[in-house]
Amino acid sequence: NRILTRPETPPRTDLASLGGWLAARGGLARGLELLRQSFAAGDERAGRSLGLCLKRAGRFQEAVDVWRELAEGGRSLFAAVELAKHAEHRLRDAEAALDWVQRALSWNPPLDARARRELAARQARLQRKVQDRK
């Protein structure tokens, strides 16, 4: 309760976990603040949570900014896929979505069989969409 009722957090607090918990339970502003602090300190997990919380809140441009930072700074497969989804479904830009998928594949990330199939299916679908528009 002390952590939740005071503006400062104890020094050994897992800001990413607390921020995600707060954001999911009605404390969006404070949760986002803690996630931003943790992400700024280099916690990639906080960046993933921050982007998803912003997406759920309908704050898409802020989410895109976080995902771009993750993708360009750390070659985050998660962020590249989220950017591809955003481009495909919100922007209706199959070429931009395909570009993010191809960029992620060029990083040659270690993928399990399921993730490889999902990424290949996304790439094939986007290639068809791009070809259909030409």
| Oligomer class | single chain
User: What spatial form do the alpha-carbon principal axes imply?
Assistant: elongated
Largest sheet: none
Number of DSSP helices?
A: 8
Q: Total number of β-strand segments?
A: 0
Low-confidence stretches: none
Structural class: mainly alpha
Q: Output the helix-strand order.
A: HHHHHHHH
Determine the fraction of residues in helical runs and give it as a percent range: over 70%
Characterization of the model:
This protein has 134 residues and is an all-alpha fold. Helices cover 76% and strands 0% of the residues. It is built from 8 helices and no strands. α2 runs parallel beside α4 and α3 packs antiparallel against α4. The longest helix has 20 residues, at 113-132. The radius of gyration is 17 Å and the shape is elongated. The N and C termini lie far apart (58 Å). The mean pLDDT is 92.
What brief labels describe this structure?
about 130 residues; mainly alpha; about 75% helix
Condensed summary:
With 134 residues, this protein is mainly α.
Please describe the topology of this protein.
Blueprint: H1 2-5, H2 15-24, H3 28-40, H4 44-56, H5 60-74, H6 77-90, H7 94-106, H8 113-132
Helix pairs in contact: 2-3, 2-4, 3-4, 4-5, 5-6, 6-7, 7-8
